[in-house]
Amino acid sequence: MKIHNYSAGPCILPQSVMQKAAEAVINYNNTGLSIIEMSHRSKEFVGVMDRSIALVKELLSVPEGYEVLFLQGGASSQFYMSALNFLPKDGKAAYINTGTWSAKAIKEAKLLGEIEEIASSKDKKFNYIPKDYIVPNDVNYLHYTTNNTIVGTQFKHVPETDVRLICDMSSDIMSQEVDISKYDLIYAGAQKNLGPAGATLVIVKCDALGKAGRTIPSILDYQLHVAKESMYNTPPCFSIFTCMLTMEWLKELGGVKEIEKRNKAKASLLYAEIDRNSLFEGTAAVEDRSIMNPTFILKNDELNADFLAKSIEAGINGIKGHRSVGGFRASMYNALEIESVQVLVDLMKEFERVYG
Amino acid sequence: MKIHNYSAGPCILPQSVMQKAAEAVINYNNTGLSIIEMSHRSKEFVGVMDRSIALVKELLSVPEGYEVLFLQGGASSQFYMSALNFLPKDGKAAYINTGTWSAKAIKEAKLLGEIEEIASSKDKKFNYIPKDYIVPNDVNYLHYTTNNTIVGTQFKHVPETDVRLICDMSSDIMSQEVDISKYDLIYAGAQKNLGPAGATLVIVKCDALGKAGRTIPSILDYQLHVAKESMYNTPPCFSIFTCMLTMEWLKELGGVKEIEKRNKAKASLLYAEIDRNSLFEGTAAVEDRSIMNPTFILKNDELNADFLAKSIEAGINGIKGHRSVGGFRASMYNALEIESVQVLVDLMKEFERVYG
Question: What global pTM score does this model have?
Answer without folding.
Answer: 0.98
